[in-house]
């Protein structure tokens, strides 16, 4: 048995535009973010989706609706089923703070040298280590660590495995760090070092043997 998961990163939000940490916080899509969603839909318009899901955060729900509105092959499938399991990583105390400031605080708290940006953290640590470092640096203790994150996400993946049949295609509109973490776990840290763009498409083939990355961060291909 195998099926395909088409992950789309939500469109650009105000927080993305101003480079602020955005996990479970909701911020509206920008005009570009709306265009990101429709553009992804245009590139996926000829894929027949047998199921469509999004995280339960508004930016993902809206993007999924934009994608499905352009699809020509999926019949009446126009609304995603919302799954909390595919929310972005929760950044706790750091939600809404400038990304660079947050990264500097995480680096300082954990004793990391020469890691002034989120990109520096991603380049020098594994995805799980970044989550654990953020949790350790959070004075409230609310930011998800790797174990919290994966317990949640794996429940979502298991639900998809139960609900999906051989050969089917499934749309999931989710978030940049979540997609990045999946790529690091099921493909390679080197690939995950590349930040997925808003509206980009990442495809996994799921089989009895596991998850195989087929496409990552694609913003140009029309399937």
TrEMBL record:
Keywords: Hydrolase. It holds the Pfam family His_Phos_1. SUPFAM superfamilies: Phosphoglycerate mutase-like. It comes from the Bacteria. This is Histidine phosphatase family protein. It comes from Weissella sagaensis.
